[in-house]
Amino acid sequence: MGKLIEESMKAGWLIATEGCMPSATGARVRLGDGKFIVTDGPFAETRELIGGFAIIQASSKQEAIEHTKHFLQVAGGGETEIRQLYEAPASASGNA
After folding, report:
1. Cys staple from 55: which of 15, 22, 60, 63, with CB 3.0 to 4.6 Å?
2. HSE value, Cβ hemisphere, 13 Å, CA-based, for 52
3. Structurally, how many domains does the chain consist of?
4. What average pLDDT score do residues 77-84 get?
C-alpha cells in the first residue's frame, strides 16, 4: 500500500490520503428542531463508517473509478464511495 501511495503522489493524481481512528474515539453531532444531540462512539452501524479517505485528481468519473479499482486490488478488497468535491467558481474579474 505504501508503494502505491508513493507512486500515486509522484504521478500527481493522489493529493492526500489518511486513515481514521476507530469510531470509539469519535462522536456524532446532529442538529434537529433547534437542539444538538451528541452521541459518543463506538457506533453500532459499522458498515457505514468511514475508515479513511483519499483526495484524488481525475479528469473524469471513469478515471476516478479506474484509480479506485486499482486501490481496492492492492488493499485486498473493500468498498469505496467516489464523490466530487465542490470547487469555488473562478471570478470573472479575478477578485474574490
Report:
1. 15
2. 10
3. 1
4. 91
Per-residue model confidence (pLDDT) at position 87: 83
| Domain span holding position 36 | 2-75
* Cα 38 from Cα 28, distance rounded (Å): 6
Half-sphere exposure of 11 toward its Cβ, with a 13 Å CA cutoff? 12
Query: Considering Cα of 79, then 22, then 53, then 5, what sign does the dihedral take?
Result: negative
State how far the Cα of 36 lies from the Cα of 65, in Å rounded to an integer: 37
Query: Can you give the pTM of this predicted structure?
Result: 0.72
The C-alpha cell 492526500 sits at 16
Q: Residue 84: inside a domain, yes or no?
A: no
* Dist CA 29 CA 85 (whole Å): 22
Q: Distance between CA atoms of 31 and 76, rounded to whole angstroms? A: 37
Task: Check: CB of residue 41 under 8 Å from CB of residue 82.
Answer: no
Helix (H) or strand (E) holding 67: helix 61-75
